[in-house]
Design goal:
Distance between the termini of chain B: 42 Å
Oligomer: heterodimer
CATH architecture of the largest domain in chain A: 3-Layer(aba) Sandwich
Strand order of the largest sheet of chain A: 6-7-8-3-9-10
Strand content of chain A: 15-25%
Largest sheet of chain B: 2 strands, antiparallel
Bound molecules: adenosine-5'-diphosphate, magnesium ion
Helix content of chain A: 25-40%
Largest interface: A-B, 31 and 21 residues
Distance between the termini of chain A: 23 Å
Number of helices of chain B: 11
CATH class of the largest domain in chain A: Alpha Beta
CATH class of chain B: Mainly Alpha
Structural class of chain B: mainly alpha
């Protein structure tokens, strides 16, 4: 097997004195889609924030595209091909939809995605392109956030709870974009609290619990019982 | 006619105040921090112009050629080397550091240039005026300053809304953390913001030196006018800042028309009224 596109070994994260991650071993290969599941507070967002450099990772063992990137700054990682759709979307309220998309290209590393290809992916955004970024419905805002992430031409795209707070029919619309994004060659990590959604899109799943990986496997081999044990912590000890 | 004259002169004076205020407004907008030494930087730029004119003998307006880029460079490096270190969750350190700057600048200027009042002679420009009507003259210099303010604010506005860097500066103003995910380096972006603000300070300083007497101690009063113009207009809105400058200027000239001793007080009263009636300022920040 070729080198993983991203790999962490024994990754730890702290908020002051509070330890949020306790030694995460993780890897993802080119073309793969990985879902990270886990209950609220399990450390999923903290993990994404660590690998994007939003949290300090000095001296930690993180490899991205074969290079050690522990301690790298968030902005330099964007230029190396890492993009994130952050939890809660975090659109810029003073910017229009189109400007929110364009700013995604500020630190771009290639030139595959353009405004036009984003509008092909989410046609509704073209109609709304002159609206304020935060004036749209929740689902449309999420499309902007995903488009903004894609505009940097990421080799690896991280999506943090893109279905949070959205109606099922809208979640379906958004997830329809995933295969199209994958078709362009991007590798994806999606964080989801919705287990079924996660199993539906992922090639492989990591389940987090209280800052540790409690289970990994492919959707076809994992059983419901294993997952709920790893997810909710029922008989969690030994689940790995 | 006296009253109309007072209003017209006030509008023109407002241009100068808007130039004082634009840099302050910009730095607050992008970095959420108030530079207490802003007025002293304006005075420093005025002394820079004085030096340039003394050594080369050029017309004061031409001193901008060195003063503006000089200030921009100082702003960029000052931000990167010093001020960036003071920014964080706590708003106190940048206030304290720039307060310290204010005192240092005033004392250095005092040491080097003495407390004597200075003014740059602008030659024919100073006395030239255009007669609009009987008893209503517009001085060429105030007009030039007002048009410069329009140009500066229009230019900044175009820069913020039409360029990629301008867009990033606006996004930084919304959310400094998330712009990092767009590939923007906060430290650099802040440096650019201060460089641009300082270039405007340079322009303001040269006009200050041409229009009024100045000495090392007049900075804090310029900060106050700038601050009032920004608050009246609404934080983070540059056209609002221009409007704020004009309102302040008109209030002052009307006050002076009632009684010459009332000029400064009338400006402060206008500011207080706006603050009480519309604490967000008259033109709060616009969306997209
Ligand atoms: N900014 C923060 N400061 C302190 N603790 C935090 C912060 N963000 C998250 N935490 C804590 O870290 C743990 C993991 O949080 P998070 O990564 O957001 O979980 P998840 O995304 O899986 O819901 C939780 O206990 C949470 O309370
Ligand atoms: Mg989370």
């Amino acid at each position: 097997m070729p080198e993983p596109i991203l790999q962490t070994k024994g990754l730890e994260a702290f908020y002051g004195d509070f330890q949020a991650l306790f030694g995460i071993d993780f890897e993802i290969h080119e073309g793969e889609t990985i879902a990270i599941i886990g209950s609220n507070g399990a450390g999923k967002s903290t993990f994404l924030r660590s690998i994007t450099g939003m949290l300090k990772t000095q001296g930690q063992d993180i490899q991205f595209l074969g290079k050690p990137v522990g301690g790298a700054t968030a902005h330099s990682l964007v230029k190396q091909g890492l993009a994130m759709v952050p939890e809660g979307r975090k659109l810029f309220p003073s910017l229009t939809v189109e400007e929110n998309l364009m700013i995604g290209a500020y630190g771009r590393s290639g030139s595959d995605w353009t405004l036009e290809t984003i509008y092909d992916l989410f046609p509704i955004l073209k109609e709304r392109r002159h609206h304020g970024g935060t004036e749209l419905s929740g689902g449309q805002q999420q499309m902007v956030a995903i488009g903004r992430g894609l505009m940097s031409n990421p080799k690896l795209l991280l999506c943090d709870e893109i279905s949070l707070g959205l109606a099922p029919i809208i979640i379906k619309d958004i997830y329809e974009a995933v295969p199209k994004i994958k078709a362009t060659g991007a590798t994806m990590i999606v964080v989801e609290q919705d287990i079924n959604q996660a199993l539906a899109v992922a090639d492989r799943v990591y389940c987090f619990q209280e800052g540790r990986v409690s289970l990994t496997g492919t959707p076809t081999t994992l059983t419901k019982d294993e997952i709920s044990a790893a997810y909710f912590g029922l008989e969690a000890e030994g689940a790995q | 006619m006296d009253w109309i004259n007072a209003i017209v002169q006030g509008i023109l004076l407002g241009g100068l105040y808007a130039l004082f205020a634009a840099g302050l407004s910009l730095m607050f907008g992008v970095m959420r921090f108030v530079n207490i030494a802003h007025g002293d930087f304006i005075v420093m730029a005025a002394y820079g112009a004085l030096l340039a004119v003394t050594f080369t003998g050029v017309h004061p307006l031409l001193s901008m050629i060195v003063v503006v880029p000089g200030l921009a460079l100082m702003g960029y490096f000052g931000q990167r080397i010093l001020l960036n270190r003071t920014l964080g969750d706590d708003i106190l350190p940048p206030l304290l550091v720039t307060f310290g700057f204010s005192i240092i600048i005033q004392n250095v200027l005092l040491e080097v240039f003495s407390a004597d009042s200075q003014k740059l002679q602008a030659g024919a420009l100073e006395t030239a005026s255009i007669q609009i009507a009987e008893g209503l003259n517009i001085g060429l210099m105030p007009l030039l300053i007002f048009l410069s303010a329009l140009g500066v604010i229009g230019g900044l506005q175009a820069f913020f809304y039409r360029t990629s860097l301008g867009r990033v500066l606006r996004a930084t103003s919304d959310d400094q953390d998330t712009v990092r995910l767009m590939g923007a380096d906060n430290a650099k972006i802040f440096g650019y913001a201060t460089a641009i603000a300082s270039a405007v300070v340079g322009i303001a300083g040269v006009y200050l030196a041409m229009r009024t007497n100045f000495d090392p101690s007049v900075g804090p009063a310029r900060l106050l006018f700038a601050f009032e113009a920004v608050i009246i207009g609404g934080l983070g809105n540059l056209w609002g800042t221009l409007a704020g400058g004009i309102i302040l200027g008109v209030a002052q000239t009307i006050g002076a028309q009632i009684d010459p001793g009332l000029q400064i007080l009338a400006g402060h009263i206008a500011f207080l009224i706006v603050l009480v009636v519309k604490p967000q300022g008259l033109f709060p920040k616009m969306k997209g």
